[in-house]
User: Fold these one by one.
Assistant:
Number 1:
Amino acid sequence: MTEHLPALVFLTPLATAISMPVAGHRRPALCRPIALIAICCMTVLSVASLWSVSVHGEIRYSFSGWLPPIGIEWLADSLAATMVTVVSGLGVLCLLFADGLGDRPLGGRAVPYYTMVLLLVAGLSGAIYAGDLFNIFVFLEVVSLSAYALVAVPGGRALVSAFRYLLMGALGTAFYLLGVGYFYAATGALNIADLSQRLPGLLDSKAVMGGLIFMFIGLAIKMALMPLHGWLPDAYSDAPASTVPLLAGLVTKISLLVWARILYWVMQPSADGGTLTIFALVTTFGILASVAGACLALRQRELKRMFAYGGISHVGLVLIGVGQANETGLSGAMYYLLNDAVMQCSLFVLAGFLALRYGASTLDELGRAHVRNPWAIVTFVAVGLGMVGLPPTGGFFGKLRILLGTLEADNNIAAAAVVLTTLITLGYFAQVFEKLVRAGSDSASAHQPETPWPLRATMAALVAAIVGLGIWNDQVVGLLVDATAPLGM
Amino acid sequence: MIESPFGSVIVRRTASLLVSLVQLFALYVLFFGQYGPGGGFVAGVMIAASLVFGLLVFGENSATAQRATRLLAGDGVGLLLFVAVGGLCLIGGGEFLNYSQAPIPGLDSAARRYLGILLTQVGVALDVAVAAVSIVYSLSRSVAAGKTDA
């Protein structure tokens, strides 16, 4: 039974999504509980598959019984299983958060909205599991199309941002597909394991190098790497508050994961020195994005935009880890990716909460709002510690491993960039913290409404995840190292 | 709102003949798809084309248009059929979409594969048809909205 778990994890949200129009036709109010239950089931299944993978080793699932390279294969190694667990867990929390936030009611649009949310989560799990480059493209497209629609939900200005996101995103997937085409032309294979065997002799081929560059550009647009990040801040600040945590926490991270898969599982850096140029390129862009993103975040006065630029700078950090071509850097980057997903999600949960409850969407408004909500303040402290990178949060251990990876590769500039980013991040979080806890008259706090339980549960779970990932960092990193073991680095 | 700008007798007579012929041929392509060129996607496009054709010629209140509107309610049903067949194979103990494992009594492996592929193709055809018709509908709606604005 356990060998079917990857398919079941994906099929649960997919089947619910496509039966949503039938289920919610008469009573749109049913959509939210149905979606919540579906993603809860998915979480249970993904935890089960994580357990199965950590005990019995990786699962390779061949759809319709056709074996790869002819058939479509799903690869559930411990990296994929961990990532899917985080994705589905965050999906549950985001839906709970939307429940408690009481955002603008969706009315008749509840059916398409929840269909899109479920398709997004299904697409994410598909992109994580997919064992060949073309299916990764398909699921990236499923994720992106749902994300465009979700950004556009409030209408008005969000439509412009969503359209811009759509244009950039379509360009990104087109570039990626072009790269996949080059690879297919050069090798005649799409399956990752198959490609990794055929590529080593072909590394001088211009088609392979060109394909790799095209895939990098395409995925860089999708992950909002520094010079190509233009769509992200607008899309995140105009999207509905209840949706942004889902997008910020998960969508850009998936492209990073795919890029790591291509660099390590397809290219296999230890096999040959020919791929080292691309690693140097990735490191350079990572350095640029992490420092410049953090500097831009420092300049922002609006909370959501500041957090969005913070996310952009963290994409750079992950890329620095990925670009070191050693096991420490890669496992550190993947571990940091998990943490970053949780932290971005919490940041936008917090931003949405502050904006809707206290009307505070800029730093100055936050200073005047006299937030005396213990849940929000504790969450902020935990996320702040994680983003800056202080123990006992997962952010610290992730950054530490990335730093160790850069030192192992004798890449002092990258190490300096990691430290510099940490300092600048401390700068902008100190700004927000100062405004958040600024002493004011307590008269305003007397008639503040109580926080509803779904919000409290969401924030508590997010804090627990941030700290828990840090406390059990050995076990989580161990899982990720297991996944990189077949690479022989 | 789609009005009927092509009201001439010749167009109407031809269309009423062609619509049913195209639909018949779509069914042929759907069932023949396993042995030759064709299959669910092509059949779905042909069904949609016949419905859109009828919609354009006879206007929105005609029988063809009613049929097209009813088809829109089937949004997602095709995909559901696809997943249901795949899920059936999972229940039977095989991989997702491994038709030979579908627990249908009284059929040998080859017949199960035949039935499984046919059913998923019907699902694909339905979904493609619904998608194409709904694109036409949403375009006609936005054209109508533009007219009332002006």
Number 2:
Amino acid sequence: MSENVSKEEPIISLKNVSKYFQDKKTIDNVSLDIYRGETFVIMGCSGSGKSTMVRLMTGILKPDEGSIFIKGKDIAKISSEELDEVRKTFGMLFQYSALLDSLTVEENVALPIKEHAKLADEIIDIIIKMKLSLVGLRGYEKYYPSQISGGMRKRVGLARAIALDPDIVFYDEPTSGLDPVVGGAIDKLIKELSEKLLITSVVITHDMQSVFNIADRVAMIHKGRIVDVMPAKVLNNSSNPYIQQFINGRPNGPIDFFKEDINIEEIFGL
Amino acid sequence: MITKIGKTAIELAKNITGVFSLLVSILYWAVVGPFKGKAAARQSIFSQMIFAGLSSGLIVFFVTIFTGIVLAMQSAYQLQKMGAVLYVASLVAISLCRELSPVLTALVVAGRVGSAIAAELGTMKVSEQIEALETMAINPVRFLAVPRFLALFFMLPCLTIIGNISGMLGGYLVGVYSLKINPDLYIQTTFKYLEIKDIYTGITKSFVFAVIIALIGCFEGLNTKGGAEGVGRATTRSVVISFILIILADCVVTAIFYFSKI
């Protein structure tokens, strides 16, 4: 896929983006292009800046340097009304689903439709039923988020994310906290949605199983920097030591996450 | 030491500007929003009105009726010495309408509703629900803060009127059954000295208090940081700050009425 898309205009484009949190550079001069229809996975350890990246792309956070283009619009510079217009064309699945507790499943899915589309209630009902059957949750319309399991909440979150037929869907750790079977089902859903509905998917994860299941292209991020971007097919053969350490889950290597923190010999005085 | 004072001052200034910008955006969405076809959901305003108003009715009733009773007994103790027990009626009525009922109702509502607003919005904030609203291009101020603000703005004065009536009822009970004042005479004396301006100064105060409670509750909730502990902190802060501001605003508004001879 990546071979023929690279000539197209990217749908999301980051140019030299940096973001600071209290003088600490969380995102360091990142440039990235994501193309229409592909499933792009950003992987990295906890605290590497993955979540910050997606929050920059959704306009929740503003970059301190550089610019972020979504469909050619610099979302850091446009007005909040224009940003809202851009936001209507994308959906987001949150790590903990972020469903509104006070609304039922169907009200949660209906929320973006009711807010942004002037449609009759009957039509909205049909759309909700369609979206819920896409994620396999027909019959749970009247339940509250607290009454269903974590995996089901994720699927409701997914139904809400695709409620307005978006062009882009962002997934923040879609499989974290789920058992492997449900995680696999979510992966399958993501894959199906991007194929059936031609959605561009941007997935943040550290679940390697998920990466191999869904990704077209993969970016590895470490300490706020992009280490490498490559097609998922060649991931296993990559010579990049960061990627090798990450996909094999080795504690020792260039990613020195624990080195300073844990020194057992010193702790026990050996 | 100096840096600490400086940091606290900067923090305070940030909070004050934050509260005012929240007020501006609430007013924008409440007043201008409907003309742009972006009104707050009516259903959510009504459900907030039921929560903030109707469900607070009973507790306001009890707090003010007992205050009325205590007020009648304490003033009777003083007035008996001058043989002016009859004036318990007007004293209770005026002090309730002008001062006690608006303030006590506001304090009760700040404890009950303001804290609930902070806790609810705070939980929504830490569980990414607010962020989810933003990515769905739904303004959280319009969607969450405006219904709560409007509900309190209209319900607190209503609760204050309930407080006025039930407080006077408390006074009546003491006056008639303990001080043996003729019931008709008690009611007559109550309304003889109670002027309409006594009532509307009290109601005016309750509008101001409603703004304070809603604003502080929403501000603390929407600015919650750091998990369950943060929600707890936001809830406590919202109650403490509302209490202080209510008393302060009461002092200021009373002074304005006093010096402008209203």
Number 3:
Amino acid sequence: MKRFAMATAAAISLLATGNLALAEYPERPVTVIVPWSAGGGTDATGRIIATMLEEKLGQPFNVVNRTGGGGIVGHTAIKDANADGYTIGIITTELSMYDAVGSAPLTYTDYSLVGLYNADPSAVFVRADSDYQTIGDLAEAVEADPEAIQASGANFGGINHLSWVSMVQGLGLDGAQSNWVPAEGGAPALQLLASGAIDVAVVQFPEAQGLMDAGEIRALATLGSEPNAKHPDVPPVTEALGIDFAIAGWRGVGGPAGMPDDIVATLTGALDEIVASQAFRDQMGRLNYGVVWADGSEFADYLQNRGEAFGAAISAAGLGQ
Amino acid sequence: MDAFGLALSLVFNADTLIVIVLASAFGLFVGAMPGLTATMATALLVPITFYMDPIPAIAAIISCTAMAITAGDIPGALLRIPGTPASAAYVEDAHGLTRQGKAGLAIGISICAAALGGLFGFAVLMSAAPMLARFALNFSSFEYFWLSLLGLSCAVIVSRGGVAKGMLSLLLGLFIAQIGLDPLMGQPRFTFGFAELAGGISFIPAMIGMFALAEILRNGRAGLQIVPQIKVATPFAGVGAALRRYRLNLLRGAATGSVIGALPGVGGDLGAWITYSIAKRTSKTPEKFGTGHPEGLVEAGATNNAALSSSWIPAMVFGIPGDAVTAVAVGVLFMKGMEPGPQLLTVNPHNFYAVLLVFVLANLLLIPFGYLAAKVARYIFEVPPSYLNAAILLFCVVGSYAINNTMFGVLVMLILGVLAYILQSRDFAIAPIILGIVLGPLVEQSFTTSMTIARGDPLGFFERPIAATLGAVTVLIWLAVMVRAAYGAWHLRMSQTHNQ
């Protein structure tokens, strides 16, 4: 009888803790807004993060692509969501620029920052049959007539556009003269390049991998100071053209401002473990994405610095208000 | 051929086969529920595929989507709620057959044409994937612009109630597509400061409202009559005869679908509309279209699944996914160490063949599952109509709520449903409105991108060979329609003066 009572007590206490655990965040599915189209880099990494958060926290993390307006639609949707922790999103580089460019009054202060998980430089691609064999050839053509070279790789004023403008600027030209074709993301821009509608695509390596392997396009240069670990043959633009260049794209997780601290802490804790895990590094490595980590306050500092650096670059490029 | 043997052993083992059957059953359920989409089904499957081997994981996604998209035709046929924008092209014919008491035939034709189209798509994948992928790479914003205009023109031409009213319907759809943030600079349009309008009008609540709610309203007013379903030994009786009779349509639909489907982004939605209009133009009895005529159903149904198979081509060969479903699938491929790209065909051909075999199985499974669905479906019509209508209304509300989990979707469904009821009672076609909503953003985006590339020169739209061809075809269709209208008016006037 005593044993039965103990067993009952144990069962009750188990049930009780079980109930307590159930009452913790998240109790129901969480929506993860990705502000860019399916198939791009933000979508790919966002889906990895969502799947792993789902494993860690035991509730579905459903990825929703809210595209349009160069990421403004999605970023606005994250900002305007209920700050209950059940709508979060992947925030991207463009958030460092909207305000400086004057395209939308969005800054990192509009978000509860969960963590930074990725930073990557873009690269310059041309069609395989292009006349430009090296980045030097392309630089010469741009110097001859910056308006004649049509480039794309996502929206007007986005990281890829800004990288391109900075390169043109670095060649001693007026960055505002460069000819940029806005696209919905990396994949549509690559389609434009492969179809011969434009001359240059500025996107990140993983987005271009399939077309590179197929021999349809070539990489001319990495837009950074270091070569990409997976593509050591592609020269960094600092080395090839002697341009000082350090603009890189970043991706992080955030929610609407004013999310409860304990929920942000739960998410940050889970994301910290995910980013530190070998499984995440393997998947990011396989997809060729760089892994970095910064939690809430470090992330805020990072974004403040970025905001200033991008602001300076944007006004130098003649894109500011 | 070693690779093929290896692929056989990868697919024909208990694990993979069980996964395929279960995923198909899941897809059937999701697809047949109005408002639940194939994208949703795939997204729900991803966490489960995490624990599977690569081939079963991919098999789960392929068989689930193939089934879900085809099963979207079932509520279309029974309740006039199309499951996908593609099935909206022929929903009138499918539902028309049901109203004649031939629900089994309608579902049977949809399912069998889809299965055969899917198998045709498999043959194309098997033999011409790299070629077709290379062809699809030639499509830039210029080609997309003309292609989407061509699709919209087709929707107008086939619409019942005449071209002029079809055009007005289309313009209404394009206007609805304008609501929200503009795709170039993110400026709000027609939002009147409402945050929810800034996200735009999503086509699923619009589709549910304009087809299903409008139908309920019409039934309620007309005093709904029970449609006695013809009792036959098997629900698929007559399917074979219909498919044999329209075998040319079947083949043409599947072939067109395979090509259009390979274009990233638009293929799946557009294909059925284009082939439905081809079927109508070439038919001996075009006046029967839209009233429950199997001809267009056969051709467009085959297009649907052929396009579904070939929509995987750009995703697998170049890693450019065309829609949310293939994007999810590309993610799974990556996660399982099968990076999409040409090396998928060369380095590990057994994996590629295994994926193809899964396509075959998934399409073959459509037939028994569809048979089951058709057999069960008959009982729906034994429910008294007032209860049935109440149940449909419930599905309308749940389905439009589920898209973004907001009441805004329900509001959109109600408003557009009432609007569609009014328009329909004045003989305006509904289908062009839906296609306008679906393709509006693509038309606008491809136009602005093209104009940027051409630096504002409209002749740029005719400078590339494929774009010029598509453009010429589109303009010729417009001219033909205008000439016919002018001739009709002239003829009418002549006969009137003659009579005087």
Number 4:
Amino acid sequence: MSQVHIKTKINGDNIEFLCDPEETLLDILRDKLHLTGTKEGCGTGDCGACSITLDGKLVCSCLVLGAEADNSEISTIEGMSNGEKLHPLQQKFLDHAALQCGVCTPGILVAAKSLLEKNPDPTESEVRYWLAGNLCRCTGYDKIIKAVLDAAKEMRG
Amino acid sequence: MSPLDNTYEKQFKVIGTRPPRPDGIEKVTGKAQYGADLYVPDMLYAKILRSPHPHAKIISIDTSEAEKLDGVKAVITSKDFSKFSENKPSDTLVNCIAHEKALYDGHCVAAVAALSNTIAKSALKLINVEYEILPHVTDVDEAMKTDSPIVNKGYVLENVPKGFSENVTSYYEFGHGDLDNGFNNADLIVERTFKTEAAHQGYIEPHACLASMTPDGKADLWCCTQGHYNVRALCADIMGMESSQLRVTPSEIGGGFGGKTTIFIEPIALALSLKSGKPVKLVMTRDEVFKATGPTVSSSMDVKIGMTKDGIITAGEAHLRYQGGAFPNGTVEMGAQSAFAAYDLKAVRTKGWNVLTNRPKQAAYRAPGAPQAIYAVESVVDELCQKLNLDPLEIRIKNAAKKGTKSSYGPTFDDIGLIATLEAAQKHPHYLAPLAENQGRGLSCGFWFNFGGDTCVTLNVNFDGTIGVTEGNPDIGGSRASISQMAAEELGISYDKVRTIIADTNSLGHNEVTDGSRVTFAVGLATIKAARAAIKEMCKRASLIWGIDEDAVRWENGSAIPAGPNAGQFDPMSIEEIAALSSQTGGPIAGHHEVNAEGAGVSFGVHLADVEVDKETGSTKVIRYTVFQDAGKAIHPSYVEGQMQGGAVQGIGWALNEEYIYGKDGRLQNAGFLDYRIPVASDLPMIEPVILEIPNPGHPYGVRGVGETSIVPPLAAINNAVSRATNIRFSELPLSPPKVLSSLKKELKDG
């Protein structure tokens, strides 16, 4: 089967690619575009390491076909900081030592950003339930939750 | 002064602070390169064909159709490895690729390298394997019976007692004192049988590597691993290479917890690269990680403990039966050694049997062997306390191992922090906080030996006076920050003047794997010694400039100064000044240290767990959790806390939900994160860490490893909490909702 021509906007840039019909958006991001900040932990939508936003909606990119992304706007971890300036969530993750191995971190940051856009003042429980789809095996989540709550506070000003 | 020149009484400036980690920004921006993140020109993608049978003879493998597929560049089977070595293939190789038999569901039988993942996947379907299916066994007790199918012949050691099948490969025994006399002196004896299922380390990053091998026998290998020197040793042996010809570079590592201390796919990628003449990337799927990489052992254990009515343990005995898959391992030995480590006992005996089954070869997982054994012992101690109406913390303090205790596994303990840790738990508000209906509180001690081992560090003083530390242990939890802190502390400079990197296998001598909670201890020790060597050289350079004797110079606050008034009057010469002149005073300055580090210092911890059991569903919620652990000296307290919290949550997962579920067909039923359920954020409360600091005499700053002990106590702490909340004594993990519910129903029915 021939490849499909897809036009997208990724982190603000117009990007076009060709993909096999069965290729996932995660495979495209990583293998074709080399945006490897988006990680593959399971390939079945269970771990959240491949979290991105697709037209503003938080999704697991392993559950989206590359072909589905035509004419869409995609945000990945690579688009989160602004030049030298880290997003408050990124800075708070460093301040709170909220990562150990760091492989789940991009997905958790993308998911947390999506939460704070919808709910700038979440409770601890709301953060825990929102991030329940993002597995972290190193930290026990404690410092992650504290970092997100602290970032939310700072962003509210 | 002691031979180690210990300085843990001094006031630290950098140690104990919480600076940002050097790899932090890369990791929060997605720039950090993990095992699967490297792409090189002309690279192929590899996929593995795995056996669907738990035990089967491989009659033939026909790869011809796969080889014909457009875009396929190489296909290999075990036959491709026979040309590298005339020796009998090692267990490691046979685990990487099945030779005569497939030994477990998911055992690799062939592999393909192709232009894309899609083509490689299609090619797997064209490989035709003819199997002769053999009877299988996956349960430890079944596998020990004389009529069990035999998994793998020829492994039984001489000291194994008679009366078992050939699957029982090794036997261990530890202890001292008169057990019969001890039990005779007890007012109450509790004896129970326990079972635990295998848990997977569950690192979020699947195994991944990229290999490039040339026909002249040279190769480069990039992979995620806890120990690239071990990867080199194992792969060089399998590939018939000299170590110097194989350079292994570790990527960032997305979690390991012991599971990345060995190899699974690296020889496959090397052989495919050699055969195809191109670089080959091989990344496991999650399904493959569950089926074919190391989970823990599963266990079946009998524990018998006697206690007087005022709470003195008179005797303890444990029989441990561990299965660790289709190849022998020594994990049960560590279980038998650690079972009673927290206690000062007159009479103690532990026995352990290792058993082969048709399951994947177990790999280390945080304190391997200890969580199971200590879960069983600590559950019985709690039951004795409950039945004798004694305070479980007081009883543990009363019987606690301390300096001078002859441990249950032989050695006599030096300074240990168990009693201080127990007392900290006793004084903590958590211990006396009220509980509501359906809630229970459990506690458990934990123990781990900690290791040192072969370690090399080079510390370079750059011309501008900044420091480059080169070490050889992959950083799995912030160790680069801790190593930089120790270098800065010793040199008397600020943290931001030091950058620590992890070198490839050609840049340093052999470094033991990042395991055994050894890195902050052993690499830290070598870094301090390397810094001292550099300081000695810098003092010498200052003496040359000042024209005074080398011994008349000493080091203080990042500068060389005259040692005393008789040495002469000179202004302090800073590290920057000495470095800037180094080219004129003898050349670049460096310090290095190579050691087989001893004196790691054992580690103890105590956990308090409060749970609430939903009696309608059998579901258990952890509502409060506190970890008390002796860190010796916390170099970077945030990462020490992180080890304590992370290990505790892994143990909570093991206690409540995580388990390998095998069907009657010997196939793994839950090879994915949906059905193998690790804890998620909404399952948990905050995990409060309480760091104790009882210095380890074996480290200049008093460091003890902290990485592993934290996974040990949760199994019994949760079991004891659930048992107290429901008034039912549970003896099988995990305490998953169906299991708890059926016990609750049975209790209700039995009245």
